[in-house]
Each structure stands twice: as structure tokens, then as C-alpha cells.
# Entry
Amino acid sequence: MEPVQLTAATPKTTQVDMLVATTREPSGDPTTLFNGERSPKPYLTDVAVSIPPKRESGTVQWPKRLPPNPATDFAVTRVKQIATLPEGRAWFRTHSEGGRALVFVHGFNNKYEDSVFRLAQIVHDSGMQATPILFTWPSRAQLTAYEYDKESTNYSRTALEQTLRTLAQDPEVKDITILAHSMGTWLAMESLRQMGIRDGRVNSKIQNVILASPDIDIQVFAKQYAEMGTPHPKFTIFVSQDDKALAVSSFITGKVSRLGAIDPTVEPYRTKLEEAGITAIDLTKVKGGDRLNHGKFAESPEIVQLIGQRLIAGQPLTDSNVTLGQGLTAVVGGTVTTIGNVTATAVAAPVTIIEQPLQLRKKPKKADETLQGDLVPQPLTQ
# Structure
């Protein structure tokens, strides 16, 4: 993550600027910035990512060595810590896209840099007109750390709620879309539920919530949805019955069905979705770029463009201008619709986040080292 300098000899790259809020602990290493441990104080960082000119849509060109080569790799070109609320508001004014903000919450088994590069890829490939905000929580990026990661989402609920509140209170912000993936959908739902319980409803600027491969117990999701109050934001969920990661999650959590693995066209799901006003898009027939079929929302060029061009803008999926998905079905208002005729082909992706090598587990810190800061509320910015 240590910034690289672009030179006159560098081929023309595309730059994505984002604001990154995190509950991760600073690593003390400029190449990583933040690690997978938990910090009682949230941090805010201005990050710029350059994207190489020659690449397949839906893929991330992970650096094979450091420093990365901007001609062929995703590379960070700017890192600047933001310490105060006025600094954060000034950043948004400078980078505003019509007052529309996208808050991305990553999933299980992600390092800090994984989530930064994934959001940069989504922003670039979707062509979205929104200011990107990343919320990255303390994942240890180990397949064996599922329970630690899950507890880290619970640890981060208030910080995400605070991030959303800070955005909503900014007069420059007109509307907010939340895009959450996998275990990050649990964090998003918990923060929205917490906001709803506190205020009686979710802030009206939060207009769209998109849950991709949601790793949430179906019964718990229903409770979260009900308890966040009304009116609700517009909800869209991406599901896939061949999602192997969610199958593993279901096994770990007592063989309870996960929301992201349902067939939304069958009962009782179809009726329940209609009653709740939730749109479900079934990606089962779309081939993803990873062997677990867990990242289709970002790795399919057509799907990521659907997110950027229509869902973030709050546009309906039932008009004649939607051209998506050979065999792709959407359940909108209880009606099962096949949308469009785009080829659902596999994307040639490199090694994905969830398939990265295991790292050695760090020795846990003593309780007196970790709890002291947690006993005092810590704002995102001053």
C-alpha cells in the first residue's frame, strides 16, 4: 500500500479516489497500513488507486511483487490520513459526483489492500456516478478465522453506523447507496438495525441497500429488516444457489440456510420478498471468476454495470432498457422476470481474495492491552 510514483514513461492509467474508514489496527508498515486486528479508534484515509490500461473487466490485477508496476498492476498512488471532520467534508466536496455516495462493505477473508483494490475495480468497471467510500473491518484474511471475522463485524457496528451518520449529516451528500458483500452484509444490516432502533427508522438519505451473496441466517435477516423501522431503503439482494462459500457457512452455523443461497422464485421466499418489497436477482446461471462462485456481483462485467448504472441510481429493473442476463431471473414485486439477453460467460480472473494463502495466526494480545481503549467511545473524526 506504500504509494508508487507515476512517471512520464508509465502507460496511461485510470485513477480511482476513495475515502476509507476502518476499525482495523494500524500496522506500522507503509506497505500494508492496517492489519487484521481491532482498533478501538476508527481511522479515515484518503486513498488513490491507479488501474492498468490493459485488463479484463471484472478482474483485479493483484501486484505479484512490491513495488507494483502501474503498467500492469493495481497500485496505490496516494495515501493521506484525515484527522478532522472538516477535512473529510472538504474531501467529499472535491470528489462529489452529484452528491451521490456509495459505501462498500467487504466480506470475509479480506486484507485492507484487498478491499481497496476490489472497490477500485467495482468503481471503474461499473462506470458509476457516485463517490466511493470504503468501510473495511478487521478481517484476519485467513480461511480458519471465520469466527474471529464474524465477531469483528459485531465489533464494528457502531463505527459503520457513525460513518453513515456522518455522511448523511453532510449537506453535500444527497443520497447514499450501501453495497455489502458476504459477511459484510451482516455488518451492514446490524448497523442499519442499530440506526433504526436509535432513531425509529433508517436515515432517509440511505436510499439503496445492495446485498451481494449475503452470509446471513434467513430468520435473522427477517428480524433485522423488521427492527430497522419504516420506511425502509430500497433493498436488492444477489443470490446464487451454487455459492460454495455460503454452503460452508451454512454448515459452520448449524445448517441454517443463508439468505444468499435461496431460490427466490419458489415459496415461501417469493411471497415474503414481495411483502417486504425486496428485489432478488438470481445469479445461479452466471459463471463467476472464482471456484467458489462467491464474487459474481463484481466479477461479471454485466452485473457490475447493472450495479453502477441502474441500482445505485435507483432505477427499476422492469423496463425495456434493461439488457441483462441470459437465463438471469429477477423477482421484482413478486413477479419472476427474465431480463435481457447478455451472455453469462466466465470471467478470466486471477487468484481471488478468498483463495489467497493462509497466513500464520498472530499471537493474541492480552486483555488489558485491548480492552482499555474499547471502554471509551471513539469518534471517527474530531
